[in-house]
Amino acid sequence: MKRIITFTLIALLLVSCDFIADRYKNVPDPEVYFPDGQELKMATAIYEDKPRAIRSLIEEGIDLNHISKGGMTYLYYAMLNKNYEVMELLLKHGADPNIHSTFYTNPSSHKIGYGDDNGACLAYCGRRAYDIKYMKLLVKYGANVNDTTYISPLALSIDDELQGKEKVAFLVQHGANINLRVAGATVISSEANMYNWDKVLILLDLGADPMAGDDPKFNVAAFVQQYYDEGFDPNSENGKMAQEVKRRLEQRGVKFPYLPKKPAASTPSEGQPKE
What we know:
Keywords: ANK repeat. The protein has 275 residues and is mainly alpha-helical. 49% of the residues lie in helices and 0% in strands.
């Protein structure tokens, strides 16, 4: 049951991200999230790619970390426009990459005071639509590689079929905890939960602990065992990768069939993510 719930949660997060990405194939007009005043002037300059106008507003003292009436920062909007140069300009002049935009995907929701997206630039740039250069730029200016407010940069980066391994490696090299737990689960256990053995192998290559996590029934070994119990084609690509994952676990001393150990006696901190 926990696997089903977790799978559903992950799927909903990724579907939500896909919805946002589809929405921004054509970037929203500035007034959608920056309805009036100075914020509309700045957003329009970003949208129309006018660095001179942006610099002029900066010289006038505009707050680059202002969250608009629509819940979005200028940096986030520049990122949606995929304007690397403007992002760099904003960052050089003090834009904070760790401020979370709390914008809405449905304008009617905003009318009743509801914001449904807690956007962090670095996590969003983990998506396939973004070259790794955006991620490198944000990290250069202090983006938190272990931000888990919405979904971690690692979790989105590993799903990039083009540069996923490179992005995850970059994040780890710059301090990301590859075994970071969100709701008690690690990225590698979540990928194993979905039988994404190719991504499990990538994470193993980068040093992820397949047995990490708060629940002994929710780690890579448990899902390998489940995959074997359900039956699979050993000659399929995914089947071959599952066998390789199992082999690597056995090299680490994991015994199959895998029988999860019972959780230790409860403590006052039980259920809290471990640092």
